[in-house]
Structures are given as C-alpha cells and as structure tokens.
Amino acid sequence: MKPTYQDALAYFGVSGAHPGGLTLTKFLLEQEKITKETTLLDGGCGTGQTSAYIKKNYPCSVTSIDYHPTMVKRAKNRFEKEKLSIQLVQGSLEKLPFPSNSFDIILVESVLIFTNCKNSLAEVKRVLKPGGVLLLLEMTAERALHAMEHQNMCEVYGIEKVYTENEWIHLMKEAGFPKVEVKLGHSVFSHMMTGMEPEDEAIDTSVPVNMQLEGKLMDHSYILYTYGNIIGYRVYRANL
C-alpha cells in the first residue's frame, strides 16, 4: 500500500499542518467560554500539540483521539513527558468510541476532510451535548474547482472531495447543526498577508531518511503554491 500524506505527517511528527498552526488555534479558543466544567474533545489530535496547550492553559477536561497509530504514540509520549492528564484514544471520527452527549466542545483541525464527512459529522453530533459547539477548521475551495484541479488535490491528499464554503455549511446543516457560522477564512495566499504567522514547529529529524514520505510533503507544498489563490481554509462554528 502506498504511503499517504497522513503517513508523512505522522512519520515526521508534524504538529500542526493546518494554516495558522497553533497561533490560529489559540485565537479560536480565546473566543470560547471554557471552564472547569467543560468537556472538550480534540478530534484528530495528531502529535497532541493542541491538546497539550489546552490542558496547560484551560481548566477543562480534555480527551484526544486519533486514527493513526504513529500519531497516537507521539501524543502519548508528549502527554507523559509533560505530565498531562489527558484521555488518549486511538479511533476514528467516523465511529467515535464515546457515549452520546459526552462533550461540550469538539475541535477538529484539518481532519474531517480525510474521512467520510457525512459519517463523521453524524458521529460528532451524536457525542456533542445539547447546546454543544463544533469548531471545525478545514481546507476549503474558494470556488468550484475544475476537474484537473480537483483531481490533483485529491490525489495528493488521498481525499474524495475538496468542498467549497457553501458545501461545508450544507454538510453540517444536513447533519443536524441548525446554526453554522464562518468565523474566519482565507485563501492560502491571502492568509500569508494577514501576519498571523504560525509558531515554529519542529520536525522530527531523528527518523531515518524516507524519500517517499518526504515526497508527500513536497507534493503538499506544490499544491499550496500552485493553487494558493483557489484553496484555503475556513473556521466553522456550529451549534446544536
């Protein structure tokens, strides 16, 4: 089986592959009311960077989940090293291993698009408490993509579709989220002009050279610089 873009992120321990990185995540969290009673799920936690930040800066209960075993291992090592009490689970957004009505806030950063979005949104809705909040940061097309543009992006990322803003909103409303707001959004190129630079993120240089996986990260860079005016991101906030 050919390695995926997700495999490359896991292998090199890339902490925040989404635009804005932890800087953007911090900004989003500041807009929410997070107390010691808040239960928060980091859906697709990766190396655990966001979960660790939340646990160290907010009094809430944090649960983290990721599907990729290498990411789970990296997150586990981070939480143990930093002595953080975070529940860590290996599992999929498409079939969350939690009871219904478990969380007040679910944060998903550039993960949903790698899953069956309809199934994942249905599961997210199920495990959110009444009145709960979904914070979703996802790749978003600035316009309907031409066939070749869409094919190139899907092949690099191993995804089925790149959604426009209206399509993302439709998916969430179809899943049962009556109120969906777009809190922030930019194309790749316009984001570069905002001054919201991501914090420096170390890549694990201790792993052996793997040209195939390095190629996956180079393919990602190619997509950003080739299509940076027609793809970007949106931050969606959906309420139950």
Task: Give me some keywords for this one.
240 residues; alpha/beta; Rossmann fold; seven-stranded mixed beta sheet; 9 helices; 22% strand; globular
How is the topology of this model organized?
Layout: H1 5-12, H2 21-30, E1 39-43, H3 49-57, E2 61-66, H4 69-81, E3 87-90, E4 103-109, H5 117-127, E5 128-141, H6 147-157, H7 165-174, E6 179-187, H8 188-192, H9 211-227, E7 231-239
Parallel strand pairs: 1-2, 1-4, 2-3, 4-5
Antiparallel strand pairs: 5-7, 6-7
- The span between the termini is 39 Å
Helix-strand topology string? HHEHEHEEHEHHEHHE
> Mind telling me the C-alpha Rg?
17 Å
Supply the CATH architecture: 3-Layer(aba) Sandwich
Number of strands: 7
What does the overall shape look like? globular
The CATH topology name reads Rossmann fold
- In terms of quaternary structure, the protein is single chain
Q: Provide the number of structural domains.
A: 1
Short description:
The protein is an alpha/beta fold and 240 residues long.
How is this structure best described in words?
The chain is α/β, with parallel strands linked by helices. The protein has a single domain, classed as Vaccinia Virus protein VP39 (Rossmann fold, 3-Layer(aba) Sandwich). The chain is built from nine helices and seven strands, in the order H-H-E-H-E-H-E-E-H-E-H-H-E-H-H-E. It has helices spanning 5-12, 21-30, 49-57, 69-81, 117-127, 147-157, 165-174, 188-192, 211-227; strands at residues 39-43, 61-66, 87-90, 103-109, 128-141, 179-187, 231-239. Strands 3-2-1-4-5-7-6 form a seven-stranded mixed beta sheet. Helix 3 (49-57) links the parallel strand 1 (39-43) and strand 2 (61-66). Helix 6 (147-157) packs antiparallel against helix 9 (211-227). It is globular. The N and C termini lie far apart (39 Å).
